[in-house]
Amino acid sequence: MSNFLGSVHLAATPIDEEKPDKATGIGECLKLLSRPFIFLCFLGIMCHVGIDVGTNTTAPKIIMERLGLPLEEAGFATGIYFIFRTVGCFLGAFLLRAMSPKMFFAISVLMMLAGMVILFVCDTLTLLYVGIGMIGFGNSNIFSVVFSQALVYTPNERNEVSGLMIMGLFGGTVFPLAMGYAADAVGQVGAVAVMTVGVIYLMYYTLKIRKILLLSAKLF
């Protein structure tokens, strides 16, 4: 009898079940671009990808153009970039625990800017490798910082933000097109100039990280 009464009581007790997340469409993702900070994050992701793809394609060409090395030897520049990018991803997990995202992001962007300057003015293999390595290390954690900032800004729309940032990854592929036109016009230094525009934008974005951190502190 007690089991029967217990079953009746359980059946009459309302149970709040978590509703599944609503399916996220492209329209919901694109609507977030109307928010200024999310738009800045989207452009930041595009610059990150543009610098990443651009360095991989341009670094060997710079070495071939300035030093006259064959592609087989100049292609090692891509390996240098990936080595430093991998090391940067590994160390970034620890460095982000020891310093603020703003400081870490600023250091990363300054490293990329220094690397771009080296690619502009230097014509020795060792220095060119140093510049390529600095760009790889600096660009290794840009995506993670920008992505986390966007999520902090819109904690209730994580799915939409994630979708929009992934769109930014594909959108960054427009950089190589602009770099190609610039390289045809003035040589590989033109391609470096296009990437430098992306780095300068990330410097501007660094100034915005401080504001969103202050806002997130108020929200939580």
**Could you tell me the radius of gyration in angstroms?**
23 Å
- The unreliable regions are 1-11, 15-20, 213-220
Overall number of strands: 0
Query: Structural class, from secondary structure content?
Result: mainly alpha
Transmembrane segments: 37-54, 74-96, 103-121, 127-152, 164-183, 189-207
Membrane topology: Multi-pass membrane protein
Keywords: Cell membrane, Membrane, Transmembrane, Transmembrane helix
Organism: Duncaniella freteri
What do you see in this structure?
This protein is mainly α. The chain contains 11 helices and no strands. α3 (36-67) runs antiparallel to α5 (76-98) and α3 (36-67) packs antiparallel against α11 (188-219). It is globular. Keywords: Cell membrane, Membrane, Transmembrane, Transmembrane helix.
Q: Helix and strand layout, with pairings?
A:
Layout: H1 2-12, H2 26-31, H3 36-67, H4 71-74, H5 76-98, H6 101-121, H7 125-138, H8 142-153, H9 158-171, H10 174-186, H11 188-219
List keywords for this structure.
Growth Hormone, Chain: A, transmembrane transporter activity, 220 residues, single chain, mainly alpha, disordered N terminus, 11 helices, globular
In short:
The chain has 220 residues and is mainly alpha-helical. Helix content is 83%, strand content 0%.
